[in-house]
Amino acid sequence: MSGDAMTDSGGHDHLTSWREREASLYRVFPYGGLALGTVLALVAPAPRALATAPTLAIALAAGCWVAWFITLHPGWQSRRGLMTVYYAGLLAFAAVLVAANPWYGFFAWVGYTHAFPVLRTRWRIAGVVTTATLVATSQGGGLSVVTSHLPLWLVLVLFNLVVAGSLSWFAMVAEQEDARRKRLMAELGEANRQLTETVRENAGLHAQLLNQAREAGVLDERQRMAREIHDTLAQGLTGIITQLEAAEQTRDRSADWRRHVDNALALARESLTEARRSVRAVRPETLETARLPDALVELGGRWSALNGVRADVATTGTPRPLHPEVEVTLLRAAQEALANVARHAAASRVGLTLSYMTDRVTLDVRDDGTGFDVTGQPVPREPGGGYGLTAMRQRVTQVGGEVAVESEPGSGTAISASVPALPGGAG
């Protein structure tokens, strides 16, 4: 990229230098042609030439014409209409001088060099043809060649037209190439400007995306910790409070009081262990040592012993290892559903069914409790504002699953959590 840029820069500098030299020659040529024609007219007068004094006067007028339009007012070159007037005057002076003395063909030749800078494209051909005619007349010895040697004059005109036409064609090609180069440079400059703006915008967008990703990561971690705290500390503390309240009510009965206190201590130890594992984002201990169906059986047995409600756990289909996050989600869903039954349902029986299907795994939790109006209050709220089924829905949705709740007052409640059967390692 840098090498190409250096090449382009070098070519552009070379072209600029050539344009500057061309502009200098463009201004010098008319005076050189006039001077050379005048010197030759004085040193070697042509036959039937005009007298010296009028010829010099015309040459001086031609020089003043060029000086006024080209030397004294260089900015007029961009004014095409004014330059057309100048060029017409230049050819008129050249025609008069060639008629006065053929040596001024050197001045007439300037018509070639000035046609391109000052004339529009459609006028250049006329300018070149006129200049070729004047130069041919000069080469033939003046106006007499037209009357006495017409074929020779026509040959000279044709020759000059071929030469001038060839040079003009190359000049037009060069001009078109120069225009194309300028257009490409302008487009490249615009592309570079847009690229710079795009890079600047991308840098800002990249910083914005980093901030959003950082904020999203913080939010995800907060939500994870909120769910884990609810699934471990909140449920554990609720169970401990329930057991201690039961112990308070049975303190006159030593055996029942001791059982409730022991249950509260066991819940406290289990909750502390699970809280520590949640902080380290480690799987629940039951899934570390057993498969998901066995972990649900163990969960149902502990819950039944604590709450005095029968809990039946069944598995359908062929159990297979699932992705750790999927198994954690189903276990936490079962914990949440049983916690809701203990807090709200006043049920006498609960059934948990884990169903393995081809591409999905579903956990159904049904109770025969009081139920509630799904249309009026779809999510039973916990004391203090509740997190309950909201946490379950968030967990299940995060792994691509969905939660359905069915219930009617007096007819119990059914909660179904269905998740993709993402495969995992050996269980």
UniProtKB/TrEMBL annotation:
Needed co-factor(s): [4Fe-4S] cluster
Catalytic activity of the protein: ATP + protein L-histidine = ADP + protein N-phospho-L-histidine
Gene3D superfamilies assigned: 1.20.5.1930, Histidine kinase-like ATPase, C-terminal domain (3.30.565.10)
Span list, region Disordered: 406-427
GO cellular component, one term: cytoplasm
EC number annotated for this UniProt entry: 2.7.13.3
GO MF annotation terms: 4 iron, 4 sulfur cluster binding; metal ion binding; phosphorelay sensor kinase activity; protein dimerization activity
InterPro entries per UniProt: HATPase_C_sf, HATPase_dom, His_kinase_dom, Sensor_HK_TwoCompSys, Sig_transdc_His_kin-like_C, Sig_transdc_His_kin_sub3_dim/P, Sig_transdc_His_kinase_ChrS
Spans traversing the lipid bilayer: 28-46, 52-72, 84-104, 152-174
CDD domains assigned: HATPase_UhpB-NarQ-NarX-like
EC class (word): transferase
Domain Histidine kinase: from-to ranges: 330-423
Domain of life assignment: Bacteria
Keyword Transmembrane helix: yes
A Pfam match: HisKA_3
Coiled-coil segments on the chain, per record: 174-201
Compartments in which it is found: Cytoplasm
Keywords: 4Fe-4S, Coiled coil, Cytoplasm, Iron, Iron-sulfur, Kinase, Membrane, Metal-binding, Transferase, Transmembrane, Transmembrane helix, Two-component regulatory system
Primary residence: cytoplasm
Function: Member of the two-component regulatory system NreB/NreC involved in the control of dissimilatory nitrate/nitrite reduction in response to oxygen. NreB functions as a direct oxygen sensor histidine kinase which is autophosphorylated, in the absence of oxygen, probably at the conserved histidine residue, and transfers its phosphate group probably to a conserved aspartate residue of NreC. NreB/NreC activates the expression of the nitrate (narGHJI) and nitrite (nir) reductase operons, as well as the putative nitrate transporter gene narT.
Listed name of the protein: Oxygen sensor histidine kinase NreB
